[in-house]
Amino acid sequence: MTEQYLGLPIGPADTAFGLMAEYDADQHLNKVSLIAGAYRDENGQPWVLPSVKEAKARLAQDQNHEYLGIAGSPALINVAQSLTFGSNMTKNLDKSIASIQTVSGTGANHMAAHFLARHLRPKRVYIPSPTWINHQTIWAGVGIHIEEYPYYSAETRGVDLEGMLSVFETTAEERDVVVLQACAHNPTGVDLTHEQWARVAEVMKRKKLYVLFDSAYQGFATGDVNGDAWSIRYFVEQLIFNGEPDHPGLCVAQSFSKNFGLYGERVGVLHLVVPRHLAAQGARSELLGLARAEYSNPPRYGASIVETVLGNEELKGQWLRDLDTMSSRIKSMRRELRRRLESKETPGDWSVLESQIGMFSYTALSQKQVTRLREEFHIYLLPSGRVSICGLNEKNVEYVASAFREVIGFNSN
Ligand SMILES: Cc1ncc(COP(=O)(O)O)c(C=O)c1O
């Protein structure tokens, strides 16, 4: 075999993207993809939001292909701040916030990790177990020791609150970073209640832990943009407005991929929120330095779409209806899958399908069952048993439920 350049081994392919390629090559008529973290309409097709369509029509005359500034579009940053924190809190934060447009949510997470590794210098970063696969990759890339905290209990099929709190209580040290998903937890679909968030915030505040909110599903989760940002706003109240002066602060990595269906346009913003008695301008100029060295200027088109929609009352109203369309369809598919699995007396507790929120569900299917689904039924999901509910529709939900029944009924593990 030919030796690899620089001795570099060929790494494993990305699981999700590898499975998607396999799905694309599958010629079976009834094939179903429950892999991708992207919305699909009732015909299984990508959906361009009507609000986005209208914004694009309005932008059609816009012939501006100039560079954005290094920080990105100021108009995007304004609407992104208001969407995340609400307009009152944004006003009150004033000089305590430094925001920069990023290469979508991934770029915001990466920019945060890069910045924090260099300047906050935490001993460790805590990421949920399980979590979005890229958290691990991003933090490994900046050389910070990664610890996982228990997030999901397979036993209760809910949040393992006591497990996570006990890890923070016993092992976390001041200025360690804790990554929290703001809503619609990927991959479990299980979120904390307000009371549980309050308990987590209390520990973050008391132990002076730095919180990184990953916010990839605001509005997409439930259709309620304010409800989906509740955790972030509560933490800002607790850690910034009512926090100790030596609390290190928090940040929010915001993505517009899912809630605008702008996956390929790469629109995101990173918001750093610093303690009230300190100024954020130095941190902002450091973020600009990082951006300059990495990509110079973020992409313009997706930002124009988002700021056009959120900056116009009529388009924003349409966008809120679009969010409702997406989240309602997901809810109805959760209901349908549950109903069909239960009516077939499929072993397992399927009520969780409806108590989980957002795009993803943890089915508790074993790897063996997942393999059978793919090989015999041409139904594709991640080996962890995570399904993307978006891949379900009226035409395939019965087929999927029957296949689940089959693999669960004949194979207990
Ligand atoms: C939890 C979480 N964070 C961040 C992202 C980043 O998405 P993007 O880079 O497309 O904005 C995703 C996408 O799946 C996600 O699920």
Automatic annotation (TrEMBL):
GO MF: L-aspartate:2-oxoglutarate aminotransferase activity; pyridoxal phosphate binding
Cofactor names: pyridoxal 5'-phosphate
Reactions that this protein is recorded to catalyse: L-aspartate + 2-oxoglutarate = oxaloacetate + L-glutamate
Keyword Transferase: yes
EC number, UniProt record: 2.6.1.1
Keyword Transferase: yes
GO terms under biological process: aspartate biosynthetic process
InterPro entries xrefs: Aminotransferase_I/II_large (IPR004839), Asp_trans (IPR000796), NHTrfase_class1_PyrdxlP-BS (IPR004838), PyrdxlP-dep_Trfase (IPR015424), PyrdxlP-dep_Trfase_major (IPR015421), PyrdxlP-dep_Trfase_small (IPR015422)
Main EC class the enzyme belongs to: transferase
Domain Aminotransferase class I/classII large: 31-403
CDD domains: AAT_like
Note, other: In eukaryotes there are cytoplasmic, mitochondrial and chloroplastic isozymes.
Assembly and binders: Homodimer.
Protein name: Aspartate aminotransferase
